[in-house]
Amino acid sequence: MKRLGTALRLELTLQIRYRFLHAAVFSGVLWLALLLPMSDELRSVVSPYVIFGDLLIVGFFFVAGAVFFEKGERTLNAVVSTPLRFHEYLASKVIVLTGLSALLAVFITTVTHGVDYHLPLLLVGTTLGTVLMLLVGFLTVLPFRSISDWFMPAVIPIAVFNLPLLGYAGLWETPWLYPLPTYGPLLFLGAAFEQTTLTGWQIGYGLVYPILFTFGLSLVARRLFDRYLVARTGGS
Fold it and tell me: Which InterPro entries match (predicted)?
């Protein structure tokens, strides 16, 4: 726990140094500029897409940017040579960035809707979605040495994990979208604004499947971390 606490403080410091917190605030302001001029009815329809887009930014792009900065400053070399364990290193990023995403979601929603939304559903959808996209972003960035090398290949996982938006919008209603774990969080976001009504099996699916998928991604992340970072830095 002491190592995790130290890792959390370091991660928060790095997020401030890299100005990701500033970027998050700027992103929130842009979403408010989009939502506030809308009517109440239209705002409720659009809000799940906005929150989903925001967690994509915080989860996928922020973690990718953080890892590239750490590679450039050789911070990861130091991490590999310290007693800090991988799960503590990754957990610090998950906790800080997921907390940031949740705060942004609550802030944006409260400013635009007051208290006329379901906070628990919003937090569940935001948390699960952010953790998923964060791990996907972390996995995609490990094999690459620079942002320019990573950016184009990164379009593929972004496109795949955003396909549930088509199902949610009714543009492509097919059960083949349910194996994508981002569908569950999206359903919770829709329910938070009363745009969808969750059935019992959807609640179970939306909770259990993303958690299991997250666990699987974390295992893959450890293997890729060892392969692309530990081995290259000579760590053990």
Answer: FLQE3_permease (IPR056926)
